[in-house]
Amino acid sequence: QAKRAGRGTYRYYTEALTAAAQNKLTLDTRLRRALEQREFELYYQPLYRIADRRLIGLEALVRLNQPGLPPVGPADFIPVLEENGQITALGAWVTQEACRQGRAWLDEGLDFGRIAINLSPQEVRRGQTDERVRAALQASGLPADRLELEITESGLMEQGERAEAFLHNLRSIGVQLAIDDFGTGYSSLAYLKRFPVSKLKIDRGFVRDLPGDVSDAQLVQTMISMGRNLGISVVAEGVETEAQLDYLHELGCESAQGYLFSKPRPASEARAWLPRLAEAPSLKADSEGEPA
Ligand code: C2E
Ligand code: MG
Ligand code: MG
Ligand code: MG
User: Theoretical Cys-Cys bridge with 213: which of 114, 209, 235, 262, CB 3.0 to 4.6 Å?
Assistant: First the structure.
């Protein structure tokens, strides 16, 4: 086909390919510099319980903010780091930084529920993640039950027994495991039994067309009842409207995250959402029975 289209098309493809290669080179160089000079930043997006709109957690999402250069999102640069093997270097920094920030907020008397960080499949596969998470917890002094790891279904499915063992180990010290983009991966549901899953995050692709789309509504309902039956909490991602939120509440969905509440924000702005530790009555109520 390209041949029949002639020389002009051929040249077009060559130029496009060269531009793509150069862009990738530039991004590669930028990423190397960013890792060396610590130019990444963590933004935080809040998760709320729908019933009383209480903040239950923050998801840490990495940003690349290099002065004078156009911003690039993680959807574009994470795959490059996964390809060149540097994702573990970024992951190490993300883990340390999220733990440090969480501890700092606790020291200021601020509550955030849990901080969730995203792990790439590669990070699960390469053995050091277990030690790295433990080391970050220990160095920061963040209690282990304040940390949650988000992994996609495909990420878990690609992994063997080694991941199973280390996730159970981390769970035994209190670290939580959330399934990210739930419903989009290639998977057998057997992994819900195999891995110590504490949360399902319904992919925003299923939420977008609620409440109108009947088949999305049915799928979401199924995911919610599955979570409930298994004793796993369920969060809807990408909630942008009150209508979606109301409908999710009707379906029995526990919590939600999305632009309706807030986009991801830098730590300095995220702190404005955080209640004081002393004023978190329901945390106390959970662990100490009836509040006074
Ligand atoms: P994710 O973990 O599924 O994160 C949710 C993404 O949806 C975030 O995009 C977030 O900004 C976006 N989002 C949240 N609410 C809404 C909404 O209401 N509407 C819409 N349209 N989007 C919403 P972001 O920050 O660009 O991150 C993209 C992906 O990059 C993440 O998807 C995650 O897979 C990956 N990622 C981000 N940070 C890290 C990290 O530190 N490590 C690794 N390995 N991956 C990361
Ligand atoms: Mg996530
Ligand atoms: Mg997600
Ligand atoms: Mg995703």
Answer: 209
